[in-house]
Amino acid sequence: MRLIQISDCHLRANPEARSRLGFPLHQLESVIAHAASLRPDILLVTGDVSQDESPASYRLAAGAFDSVGCPWFWFAGNHDHPDFMQELRPFHSELDLGDWRLLCLDSRVPGQAGGELGSDQLAELALSLELSLEQDPRPILLAMHHHPLPIGSTWMDALGLADRDVFWETLSAYPQVKAVLCGHIHQAFASEQGNVAVYGVPSTSDQFAPLSHDFAVDEAARPGFRVVDLDSERLETWVERVSL
Predict the structure, then answer these.
(1) 3-class DSSP state for residue 88?
(2) Around Cβ 157, how many Cβ atoms within 10 Å?
(3) C-alpha radius of gyration, the chain, whole number
(4) What is the pLDDT of residues 33-91, one digit of tens each?
(5) What is the pLDDT of residues 120-132, one digit of tens each?
(6) CA distance to 1, 42, 108, 199, 242, per residue, from 238 (Å)
(7) What is the tens place of the pLDDT at every residue in 180-236?
(8) Interval 155-166: pLDDT, tens
(9) Strands 177-182 and 42-45, how do they pair?
(10) Which of 27, 44, 49, 204, CA to CA, is 20 to 30 A from 13?
């Protein structure tokens, strides 16, 4: 099973709109073309699809995602309008990845750049993981928009997952959770908390400078995506960069 993760497209209604360093739709189309060449089984889009939260921006995105040639799924980030997204493609809280399960968590807090899962969602997650111990022994991959670990960037870590300590406490009883995929950070990232790996992904639009105290764009970094190969209990992952 090959999953490709992309994130943070930041499209606008105008297909010719610029970002700080380029043209987001053109960059997304280049990323999708490269991703499609790797023959994915599933495409997962981990939020911030839009910059202006317009219905037109989501139509542009959906058209690009349709061209990848495999089923695709998305959920909202802090820049997104969930209702407009679900009019085009409903959200899914769980995906069947064959030997693995993928659980999608909603870390968006309306009106805020930072994220939070909240006590209700964490309680639901714990219940799902408890049931899976008894009924479904497959390893589990989690996905959310906001990063659940510090990445060493002062300004960005202030906008991460606010209740990350409770999140990790929740996971501590469930060894079937093997990894977490996140967006939001606009850069490649790999770390771990206990036995759980955490992976961030480059944006398809502008990249943020790693380890920066204040907001900074990485002018040298190219757009990219993450490839995740899943086989039985094995997970192999790497980042692909895309030349424009």
Answers:
(1) helix
(2) 15
(3) 17
(4) 999 999 999 999 999 999 999 999 999 999 999 999 999 999 999 999 999 999 999 99
(5) 999 999 999 999 9
(6) 14, 16, 26, 9, 13
(7) 999 999 999 999 999 999 999 999 999 999 999 999 999 999 999 999 999 987 999
(8) 999 999 999 999
(9) unpaired
(10) 44
Range list of β-strands (E), the chain = 2-6, 42-45, 72-74, 94-97, 100-104, 140-144, 177-182, 189-193, 196-200, 224-231, 234-241
DSSP string over 106-140: --B-TT-SSB---HHHHHHHHHHHHHHHHH----E
Q: Which CATH architecture has domain 2-241?
A: 4-Layer Sandwich (3.60)
* Rounded-to-integer distance, Cα 78 and Cα 112, Å: 7
Token readout for 203 is 């944006």
List the one residue out of 103, 82, 93, 7 whose CA is nearest residue 48. 7
Contact 22, 242 (CB under 8 A): no
Both structure tokens of 27: 């960059």
Distance of CA 92 to the CA centre of its chain: 14
The dihedral built from the CA positions of residue 129, 5, 227 and 185, taken in this order, carries a sign that is negative
Q: Which of 11, 17, 2 is nearest to 205 (CA)?
A: 11
| Centroid of chain to Cα 127 | 23
- How are beta strands 42-45 and 72-74 bridged, if at all? parallel
Does the predicted TM-score (pTM) go above 0.85? yes
List, in order, residues 6 or more apart from 203 with CB less than 8 Å away. Answer: 7, 8, 9, 10, 48, 186, 187, 223, 224
